[in-house]
Fold this sequence. Notes:
Blueprint (H helix, E strand, L loop, with lengths): L2 H7 L5 H14 L1 H25 L4 H10 L1 H16 L14 H34 L10 H8 L1 H19 L2 H6 L5 H8 L4 H34 L15 H7 L1 H30 L4 H7 L3
Amino acid sequence: MSDQETAVALPGLGIAATVSSAYRAVFGQFWPLCKAAALPFFLSLVIGVLGVFVADTHVVLDIGVQLLSLLPLVIFGIAWGRIVLVGPRSGAIPKPLFGRRTGVYFGYILAHMLLIMLPIMGLVIAAVGTAFLTGGFAPGMELESGATQVLWLLPASFLLYLILLYFSARLALVFPAVTLDQKLGLLGSWRLTRGSGFKLYIAMILIVIPVIVSVMIGGAFLGGLVFTNLDQPGLSLITADGGLDLVTLALIAAPATIFSVVVQYVTFGLIVAAFAKAYAQLSGWGGPRQEVLERFE
Length: 297
């Protein structure tokens, strides 16, 4: 079947179908999800503890730990994506664990992060730089003028994020393609989502909003729990030599840290499942073409 014939024969992307199928995949196959997340979850906790001990020690180490923290998500994304598209028989751990597939997936995640982060960072630097250049934060002067110039930064950054998220969604079908060892590329993902990009974008927003609300509620509760523990008599985060007691801090922050990692994996699981289902709808995976493609695995 040619690409033109496929485009005609296949149904378009459905917003409700994509969102509901993502939630069904995660909560309907929760045990396979847990198995796929077990090793990456453990690695995330180890890297998180490592990050506490190297924080603010050297900028290169900080960046290295941040990049390393993406690796567990790559492993989970590949394993979970294959379970969604192929089934539990694909296994909870990608094979090979650190092969070409892992490297390509990692590169695409990094590219998507830079697509979102760099323009927003540029906007922030431009806003803060303008405030400094115009004297808004000059020593001895009132801060009202500088604060007024930066006040528009939050809504502008959020609006820019929403715009960039559209482009990110259009390019994100590379992830299920890499998971299945199919050659698609960023340009191929853009073409595959032609006519369905806005629907995929809306589906992603509908998936993320409930998670954000849950994080805000849970984060507020756990944040209050951390501050309550800090008020316990005899508890101090300062060592005898005036340094920060990282061990005590890690123990106090453990519930909030575990909660944040769990939410991160559930959220990522929903997003991976949504893109996988969108890829299946737009590429024909799951129909007659799947049998042909699986022979080359």
